[in-house]
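Notebook entry, structure prediction.
Reason for the run: the old model in the group folder had no record of what sequence produced it. Starting over properly, with the input documented here first.
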Amino acid sequence: MQLASFGVVYPRRAVVTLGMAPPFVGRSRELDQVERLLSGSRLVTVMGAPGAGKTRLAFEAAARLGKQFGGGVYVCELAPVAAPALVRTAIATALEFAPDVTGDLGALVRDRFADTPTLIVLDNCEHVRAEVAVTIRSILSVAPGLRVLATSRERLRITGETAWTLPSLSLEEALQLLAMRIAVVDATFAVTADSRSALVEICERLERLPLALELVAPRLALLPAGQVAHMLNAALGLLSEGEGPSRHRTMTAALDWSVALLPTTSTLDLWRLSVFPATFTLDAAATVLQASSAKALDRLAILRDASLLVADTSGASARFRLLEPVRQYALTHLAGGPIEDEVRRLHASYVLDKAEWIGARLLGTPEQAAALEAFAELLPDLRQAVAWTQHAVPGWGARIVGHTGWAWEITSRLREGEALMRSTLDVATGVQDRARLLLRLMSLVYRRSYAKAASISPEAISAATTAGDRRELGLVLSYQTNFLPSDAAAQQLDNVANMAAETGDELVRSWERFFRGWLCESGGDALAARACFEESASISSRLGDTWVTTQVTADLIRMCLELGDNEAARQHLLSMVPALIEHSDWVAAPSLLFSTARLASRVGRPSDAFRLIAAQRRLRDEIGLPQWDTTEIELAARAHWHDDLQESRYRAEGERLTLGEALALARGVLENLAAPPEGPKRGRDILTRREREVAQLVQEGLTSREIATRLFITERTAEGHVEQIRNKLGFHSRAQVAAWVARQRLSIGSAKAGTKDP
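New structure, fully documented this time:
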């Protein structure tokens, strides 16, 4: 079981388990009914009042039916999703697409699942019902094998939906549940002839709702059943003539009764803790409760003993959550109340502190993995806090997003990250905050648009200079060289190198070497570029910065392949694989798949090459990255055999791979290759990228002077490239080069725009 930003995501083809959840009681008839309904309907919505047990039933049904779904069982918890616009992202993430998927989700689902039997459980749909309906309608229409099991207080109103209301527990099931929960607190408890009638009265009074029974159980460990029944009658009888469905009134009344038995401080604690949209840590609770960790733990224990709060101690540190009906109930008391502004400010302050902690560890430190894990856990709180601060404390939102800025890019959340950066940039009050936001925005935008990133560059330089932070200035000056003529870029990188030497900042030094490598590559010197990338990777590796090392290694691999050094490329690819399998949402993953496909095509693995290029193409579409030219890979693969039907089959297989499966395939290809032969000594594969660019321009009829002008190089350098191309290809004239380019369908594309990886 994995924790994702929108709740629990059960891995593909895994059996759903309930982890630390208490034993499931009864419901055999209901489980059979859900199974029957799913066999005849592609969308089943389990309805019921808060506390009826919809979630537990759905999860149990998914676990029970898991083997019937070869495509896997996925679970998406929608309770933490406050904004309807994030529903599509939540469902895409649960289905193991990129975290910030762009494009047509229906097409992605069609390509991945098609007719394969697959189940997705959507839990707590009611507050975003309209958006859920739109998304589910679109994916069901294109994937005949997909079935949806949803839980909601009301139907989704989609054509073909089978809506079924979950009944209360039977009396015997209710008694069994009640006895089991009481025994957790009082191991000596047993149902006796004297207590049974009172317990039956309690079960009936609470309409045999599981959560209501959970709430009353701790009281039955302290008081005789008859006394508790009398207290319930006094409390619940007041609402017997209320409006709305009886079971909704009963649940609210049960919560009213349970909360009324709490100390006043604990009642206010419940309201305060409802500010957390998902799980929270002890230090987070201590912040909003304004208490020490020890005191906060004691106060959480009171709510836990009252069955209002759940503690998960399975991880390295405990995480807590209010049961969702309880949180919604408590939130109605917080909203508009006298303490709401104070609590939301405390919550935003906690998020800001965590964002600063994360930001200090995202680059140049061995604590990067911990920072990214903290970022993923903080996301629901971060979104909520930034939305609140936009009007209440605008500067805080800019600081929160600025400190976490690199994490949005690293974890492929490009679209959402850009939107947040642009919105908070407008209200940033500090010079340092603006400098931080502009650099991260420029880097993130560059992955999709060279022109847009270039337009941000002057303001980013100005802000970094004004802020006077030498690390930020060194990083932004390095980055800006992407948008400068080669001579100016070289001079600026010299200045950055001097700055790094003066400050001893190894991270800045690593960046200078990396961007120097790009400059050498754009000048056609693949050997020098390789040396720069190797030095940059070595520095970042010494710093323990896995992310930057991975990014730089991606470009180092490309240079090795350009130079025909297949074995070095394979070894570097193998060094990238563990990090990307562990962090499969990293935006560097498409680069690894692309380079592995390129290598596979050279060494006689055409089927794997076609699978991998299809997988990376789909992934780049999901993330919103521009596509890379795969002509070279396709031509090399087809050189081993040419069978259109087989090629189509392998591409289709690649499109259906999850990212994890594609990375596993890449690792298998790399591990099973013996030392690959050196790169081809003929044809287009021996030409460097710069030589291929020059060859393309020769084919277009440009003279050496015109080529020099187009590529910002000297005429003498252009003539040297043309001569080298003729020598490598064994030609005697430019006309032969032009004819060869036309035959090879050589396509170079931009040497800068959209090639960043990083």
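Summary: Residues 343-468 form one domain.
The old model has been moved to the deprecated folder.
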